[in-house]
Amino acid sequence: MDSHINKTQWLKITAVTLFILALMFAVLGYLSHSNASVGQENEVERPLYQGWKFNQSLPAGQLITRDHLVPFATLQANPQMLSSPEMAIGKRLTRSVTQETLLTKNLLAEVHPIMGELPANYRAIAIRANEVMTVGGYLQPGDRVDIMLLLKPNKESGLHTTARRIASHVLVLAVGEQITNTKGTHREANAKSVVLSIHESIAPLILLADSAGELRLAAVGNQERMLTESTIASPVEPTVTTFSATHISDSTLSKHTADPLHSHYTVDLKRFQSPSSKPSPTKAVKTARYREPASYIEIIQGSERSMVKTKNEWSKQ
């Protein structure tokens, strides 16, 4: 009887032990499965960072274009990495790079306030300015202007006062201390210089005009700018006005007509003077030679008379 009870107790103990072990294995399995799922979720939730790298080797000073860059994704964040190629396009490299080099901020050279605004084949030229030159002080960087030349009567230009337009739709880069990439719309009435973007073919012409006469800037309105920039306009004939109603025909730079950037320029390649204002030839003034007074004596010999010149000794005394 006792042995039967002992067997029954052992069976119960064994069953309870197996149940406890099974429960423990179940709990451990559940915990391991939950940890694995959490780890997988963490791996899925890790963000991917968008970056750009160079697809070829480039030297220092190279101008970056869209063709030089390719996108890539990475799990590692880099504070120097650029997420958009637009932040680098148009800028130059501070050092040479190889293929697969990451595009970072420290590779980009700082943009010069004026040089970065110049298109190819253009030059920045500064001219003297005052309140009248800057359209009453309201001229702003980024505006477009026509350059007018006033020639007053002088020995070179003649007797007529002449005014003409020598360039059109010229970009203003700076007015005094204001430049194109700075914010500010305050009136610059005391500006001493205006920096203009001039095509290299007419840059010497602007300097010659500045020294030959008086330059004046005429601002181009926004409506005309929108109309001109939306269509490729052909060069217009320069406006020439003389107070003597003398007709002066100007020539244009035909080689720039195909380029929309250059099509706004109209240039007079002739000399800054009217054809009718040629200097009149001066007549040589004859100066009388000084002659000393002479003395003559009349000699009468019969019917014959003769004049004899004598030395004027008394006039020298």
From TrEMBL:
Coiled coil: none annotated. InterPro entries: Pilus_assmbl_Flp-typ_CpaB, RcpC_dom. The keyword Membrane applies. Residues 117-218 form the Flp pilus assembly protein RcpC/CpaB domain. The keyword Transmembrane applies. The chain crosses the membrane at residues 12-31. It comes from the Bacteria. Keywords: Membrane, Transmembrane, Transmembrane helix. This is Flp pilus assembly protein CpaB.
